[in-house]
């Protein structure tokens, strides 16, 4: 069964390693540029917008509309100087996120995940990292948040092929953060009431450096 799964993934957009995880560290600049140049940057939706606070719909159509959405997401991510972006952050109710994120060793990862699911980790892999976290949808605000320093996500690539993605450190945080978005959770939802209030205060006191959609 494992060999069959791996063989199927070799037909996907990205190559996979011996354990079936995508190799998302090769040709990063070329791949990100190709996506971004086809896309149009869109403003970022911010906390309070209903699309951010409910679970998104599964991606079922992997055609041209999705390809354009992914291109727009890469363009929007670059404009906002982010390392990950979920579709609902530009107002689209679909389970897809893009990333262009370094890990703690400075290795760059670029990819697309549709219909992601976080893999439950065994206890021996749950080492927590309480580094600061921020979000394009909560602009200018940061707070420490404990998350596992290793993460695995299963899902599909932009062509619908099954994929597995794994990451450590900052990239692991990105995978968890973006998957959360698609199930209706912002990182501030995982903070204490006091910490959440402080993050919203930071957001209110500062101006975002990129275009945002104002809430009515």
TrEMBL record:
Gene3D superfamilies: Peptide deformylase (3.90.45.10). Fe cation binds at residues 135, 177, 181. The keyword Metal-binding applies. Binds 1 Fe(2+) ion. Belongs to the polypeptide deformylase family. NCBIfam families: pept_deformyl, PRK00150.1-3. This is Peptide deformylase.
């Amino acid at each position: 069964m494992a060999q069959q799964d791996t063989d199927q993934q070799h037909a996907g957009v990205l190559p996979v390693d011996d354990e079936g995880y995508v190799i998302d560290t090769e040709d990063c600049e070329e791949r990100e540029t190709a996506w971004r140049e086809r896309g149009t940057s869109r403003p970022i939706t911010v906390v309070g917008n209903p699309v951010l606070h409910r679970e998104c719909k599964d991606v079922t159509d992997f055609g041209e509309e999705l390809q354009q959405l992914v291109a727009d997401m890469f363009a929007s991510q670059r404009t906002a100087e982010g390392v990950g972006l979920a579709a609902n952050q530009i107002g689209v109710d679909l389970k897809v996120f893009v990333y262009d994120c370094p890990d703690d060793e400075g290795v760059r990862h670029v990819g697309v995940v549709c219909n992601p699911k976080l893999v439950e980790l065994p206890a021996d892999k749950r080492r927590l990292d309480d580094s600061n976290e921020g979000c394009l949808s909560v602009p200018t605000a940061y707070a420490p948040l404990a998350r596992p320093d290793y993460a695995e996500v299963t899902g599909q690539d932009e062509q619908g092929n099954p994929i597995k993605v794994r990451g450590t450190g900052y990239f692991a945080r990105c995978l968890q953060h973006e998957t959360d978005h698609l199930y209706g959770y912002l990182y501030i939802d995982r903070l204490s009431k006091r910490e959440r209030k402080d993050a919203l205060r930071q957001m209110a006191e500062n101006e975002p450096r990129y275009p945002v959609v104002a809430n009515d």
